[in-house]
Amino acid sequence: MDAAPDIDSVAGESIVVIGGGFGGLSTACYLADAGADVTLLEKNEQLGGRASRLEADGFRFDMGPSWYLMPDVFERFFGHFDRSPEEYYTLSHLDPHYRVFWKDGDQVDVLPDMEHNRDLFESYEPGAGDTLDEYLAESKRTYEIGMEHFVYEDRPNLRDYVDTDVLRYSWGLSLLGKMQGHVEGYFDHPKLQQLMQYTLVFLGGSPTNTPALYNLMSHVDFNMGVYYPDGGIGAVVDGIVELGDELGVEYVTDAEVTAIEGRYGAFAVDTAGNGDGSDGDRYLADIVVSNADYAHTEQELLPEKKRQYTEEYWESRTFAPSAFLLYLGVEGDVPNLEHHTLVLPTEWNQHFDQIFEEPAWPDDPAYYLCVPSKTDDTVAPEGHSNLFALVPIAPGLEDTPELREEYREVVLDDIAENTGEELHDRIVFEETFCVADFADRYNSYDGSALGLAHTLRQTSLFRPPHQSETVDGLYFTGSTTTPGIGVPMCLISGGITAERVADTI
User: Fold this and answer.
1) Is the pTM of this model over 0.85?
2) What is the C-alpha to C-alpha distance for residues 361 and 354, in angstroms, rounded to an integer?
3) pLDDT tens for each residue of 400-415
4) CA–CA separation, 10 and 28 (whole Å)
5) What CATH architecture does domain 14-53+63-89+231-317+463-504 belong to?
């Protein structure tokens, strides 16, 4: 892969970036490096967007993303600025990568040791060890071709796909099928199928609605490895913010944007007051880039005549799940859990149906447990464990204190029953985060935790564009645009948006 996006000079342009998630931070760095005068406005008290941190009573939690995957993307991002990730944070390679508990009492660890993983697959299905090698070889090819020619290289129009280069690169890739059918072509055992598909949660989809192209995630999982940045994902945020400082980005927190007015060369971006009765501020700019929720930007910050999409458009989209999150400070160790642990029903279709087909609080949830204190002793007081539980749930669900309390008991009971870790009487700190919080803190449509799901009709050119078709000089970045959901994808989105800005001004 070549080293960096091709971004022409934007010297002399004043640019306001709205939103300090990974997409906004990335875009700000690229544009500042290209010579622009960049101001980033963040609604909340800290930068990072969904990668916020919660600190209390000696515990420090990553509130959102907690898996460091695709290290090559971070290396490429920092490499654009002649820097490396190691200058800003350090990584630990996790071993095991993660542990899986199934609710029939079965338990496995996936390790960096591929011989172990082959033996593991073989133990479930004769020949599956060799099949794993075949699957991962296909996954690697898909990753290398897909990343270089369909992820880093934005193709916003249908005509961009109708050329001989695209046909040559895409020959043999599984572009149109669904993940469930693709995986079934390799493995018969349902548990092996689950191991090859659990990463779809990172894309906000299910095996039956996510394109088979995303088999590339298994290369990320098995071949590239799972890492932990010391200090958590928040340390990565700090590193990118520090890079932006070095490049000249100005950051303003507690600056909730209330309106975007104007066009290229004459924008005014208004922010709310700080709650003490004072007026908000007005920022003037030549260009505006929004990393705020795309639907919120269009429906709430722009006048109706300047919107690309109607409310009906957003209502018709398939959104990625929201989440029920429990942040727990626990007395003592949790020896049965690893840094990353998955707890899965042997039949998980019901849970996916209760997210995408008939929305409801899951009766038999599949969920994720993170215990960073297994790796990092700075995230919890001595003698305690830092643990959070994440249950994917449907966006837009009713979310009340009573429902949260009821579901808390469901989750804690399930953890005890299926992992052997009884937590009820050991919790010394607790906080929940759910649908209403995603909507309130991040202005997320329907309280989705991630944005638009990666269905076939919402992938690539079928996602909303980086450049507004109705407001000259307005651009978008982040998970709703291409390439999509996830921290690495949002970093890449920042480069794509910066290229678009440089190409069109």
Assistant:
1) yes
2) 7
3) 999 999 999 999 999 9
4) 12
5) 3-Layer(bba) Sandwich (3.50)
